[in-house]
Amino acid sequence: MVIHVVVAEDMGLLRGALCAALSREEDMEVVADVEGVGELLTVVRRCRPQVVVLALTPELPDPVEVVARIDVEAPHAAVLAMSPRWSPALVEAALAAGARGLVGKDCSLAELVRAIRALAAGERAIDPAAAIAVLSPPEMPLTPREMDVLRMAAEGLPLKEIAVRLYLAHGTVRNHLSVILRKTGARNRLEAVSRARRNGWL
């Protein structure tokens, strides 16, 4: 049986390489590839693949929402989610949304092919990196006070309001946010919040 596959990846070069590599497998056929998730459901319903290789984009507010929609609207398609970095929160969210397999973007072609075949056979396929992310979550680098500030920032509160709620000086809150950005490697508050959620700190 030929396994029909849909590839969803926003990076054109990687998407093209994936499609070319998978098409060389005798038991696989890439029936469609899409750049973003906007048209993915329509393509999946039309092409009826056994497996959807879906690159999760951490920058999206809810990177696994489309997984849940595929699970509900196209239950015939098993989702193999790819991510450049798995966190406990992302693993849990992807599996809860209905993903049948998880792989890292740095996995080998042989590993990807094995995972696709497993999903097509009705099995699950969990990348070791994703499993390790659950067993060994990244250490939380923020102090309790910094976490208080980040939680307030996650609510979208301005610096002045955060200062009032935490009984801190405006400058102190600003300093805490600077430290939070440095420790998380984020460029701004929104990115710091996103990274903290992905790592299961919030």
TrEMBL record:
Residues 134-200 form the HTH luxR-type domain. One of its GO terms (molecular function) is DNA binding. InterPro entries: CheY-like_superfamily, Sig_transdc_resp-reg_C-effctor, Sig_transdc_resp-reg_receiver, Tscrpt_reg_LuxR_C, WalR-like. The keyword DNA-binding applies. Keywords: DNA-binding. One of its GO terms (biological process) is phosphorelay signal transduction system. SUPFAM superfamilies: C-terminal effector domain of the bipartite response regulators (SSF46894), CheY-like (SSF52172). The keyword DNA-binding applies. Transmembrane segments: none annotated. PROSITE patterns: HTH_LUXR_2 (PS50043), RESPONSE_REGULATORY (PS50110). Residues 4-120 form the Response regulatory domain. Gene3D superfamilies: 3.40.50.2300. This is Transcriptional regulatory protein DegU.
